[in-house]
Amino acid sequence: MLNTSSSRVARSRAPASGAPRWRHIALLGGTTTWRDSLAAAGALLLPHRLTRGPAIAAYERAFAQRSGVRWAFSFANGRVGLYGILQALGVGPGDEVLLQAPTHIVVANAIRYLGARPVYVDCDPTTYNMDFVQAERLITPHTRVLLVQHTFGVPADLDAALALARRHGLALVEDCVHALGATYRGRPVGSFGQAAFFSSEETKIISTTFGGMATTDDAALAARLQAFQERCAWPSRLQAARSVLKFALYRVLMDPYLHRPMRALYELMGRRLPLPRPTSPDEERGERPDGYLCRLSNAQAALGVRQLRALDQNLEHRLLIAGTYERALTEQGVPIARAPDHMRPAYVRYPIWVPDRARAVRAINRYALPGLWFRSTLEDGVSPAAGGYQPGSCPHAEDAARHLVNLPTHPRVTAADAWRIAKALAPTLRARASADAPQTRNGVDTRHWERVSG
Ligand SMILES: Cc1ncc(COP(=O)(O)O)c(C=O)c1O
Prior knowledge:
Layout: H1 6-11, H2 34-43, H3 55-67, E1 71-75, H4 78-88, E2 96-100, E3 103-104, H5 105-113, E4 117-121, H6 132-137, E5 143-149, H7 158-168, E6 171-175, E7 183-184, E8 187-188, E9 195-199, E10 212-216, H8 219-231, H9 237-253, H10 259-269, H11 281-284, H12 298-309, H13 311-331, E11 337-338, E12 343-344, E13 349-353, H14 357-364, E14 378-379, H15 395-403, E15 404-408, H16 415-433, E16 450-451
Parallel strand pairs: 2-4, 2-5, 3-14, 5-6, 6-9
Antiparallel strand pairs: 1-10, 7-8, 7-12, 9-10, 11-16, 13-15
Helix pairs in contact: 2-9, 2-12, 3-12, 4-5, 13-16, 14-16
The structure holds pyridoxal-5'-phosphate.
């Protein structure tokens, strides 16, 4: 069964008492340690090493090795890696790229900035990954790329993806932004297609505040990606310093005992917060911002090396917490599925379909800030139309965008936190659980997934 090994899950028992009064789990700052934070602060004292330096090559080497491929190229964001991959594959005006909804607006943008057309495929309503039966129906003579997203870190059905790509001569590109370290049939995701891209933006499996990587095992593609990377601009020292400062500060500001007042302050300040944000207003409108093609800084790469070193523990922890949610919800009368044996998910967050999102958010908010991926078929877009999405074309994705909440899984969430969160959430789910079929949405795919018993 899934790697949320039952002995470890069993050890994570329900807490004897309620949460300490001030404890509140943030969605950010979860993967960093005090030492990482100190290393980030130390980097600010070496301004000549902020942008260029040897950590970049070291990080790329370690990342490629970890992803089971020969080459990795770092960028300012995952989206830039995707743009580079598509360009290296020769995608351009008139071409079509199949991608799933829901996804993030910046994924659609990378395709559209090259003059190609994003063609949206609905998700499977139980896994939130691509429905490959529908994908096949949408293939035309213009289709060049099958872009497969491992949503929430749960691997897509890569057997189906590879078969489809082969049948129609499509390039398979993996969106591993949620899924660093996940495996499928024992192999790391990202090593199945011609190329893959990853993110180390602060909400992902590892953090360098912002950051992305494009990986490939194809020598010709690697040469083109390297040339693309060389054409990308270096970040300014100020940009690198702001990212590193944010990294160092968030370890402190997102401490579970400080998070409530910090969150209140954040809401008060809103968009005036001086720290950098991942998506610009231009990108939210589907427009290309200035300085889009940018590299990762040396100081962030050095933090990436540190984060990669702790990746195994990080992933183990996420599986433990996901298993705890599954066990706790099942014990509360809401049967929940585990992923099948041949997958080891990375669980960037744990998604739950809830009948009434506002009610679920209130319940979870007693203990943690709930994640809300996805609030739209194109997350963070001013509207789905900004990415060329036709309303009504992906009904399962639209349903997910109304009903998903995501529970935190990062290393700062304890098993006791997970029990409390699940217990608070369960009453909002029980009404649905008794109404048979729709509760299968919470990850119980009757075709591929097994239900946890008891
Ligand atoms: C599924 C998915 N793909 C790609 C991206 C873009 O990653 P980055 O912010 O590193 O460009 C995101 C961003 O959250 C995402 O959720």
